[in-house]
Structures are given as C-alpha cells and as structure tokens.
Amino acid sequence: MEILLISVAFGAFSSKFEVFIEQAKAKARVIEHEAEVALKDAQLKAKFECDREFKNARKEYENMLFKIEKKEKELNEHLENELRLIKAQKEEISENNRKIA
C-alpha cells in the first residue's frame, strides 16, 4: 500500500514536473521569438539609420564639391583677368620702350 501511495505520489509529481518543464520550454520559445523579433527590428532600424546617414553624407559631399568647383571657377576667372592686365601692362611698357628708343 505504501508503495502504491509512493508510486501515485511520484507519478503525480512526475506529471506536474513534466507540465512545468513544458511550460518552461514554451516560455523559452516565446522569449527566443521575442528576442529574434527585437533583433530584426534593431537591424532594420540600424540599416535605416545607416542609409539616412549615407544619403546625408552624399548630399553634403555633393554640396561641398559644388562649392569647391564654384570657387575654382572664380579663381580661374580672377587669374585670367590678372593675366590679361599683366599682358596689357607688358604691351604698354613695350610700346613706351619703343617710343623712347
């Protein structure tokens, strides 16, 4: 009789333990799924942020390149004007030297 009671008690305990194990496994699967979803969400946000930063950097680069090209053009125009003035002054000096000689 005692063995029967112990056997029944052990069986009940074993059943409850199995239920507890299954519940723990189910909770673990839920936690794992939530972690996977959170990871995918974080990856998506990181990619979005990276793409946004890349677009901003590209826009800034293009803007800076435009400004540099504009400054280069202005500098070239200024140098050409200076060269024209120097050439005109040189011709004037040459003309004056011819008149003197």
UniProtKB/TrEMBL annotation:
Keywords on record: Coiled coil
Recorded superkingdom: Bacteria
Coiled-coil ranges (or none): 21-99
Name by which UniProt lists this protein: Ribonuclease Y
Organism, scientific name: Aliarcobacter cryaerophilus
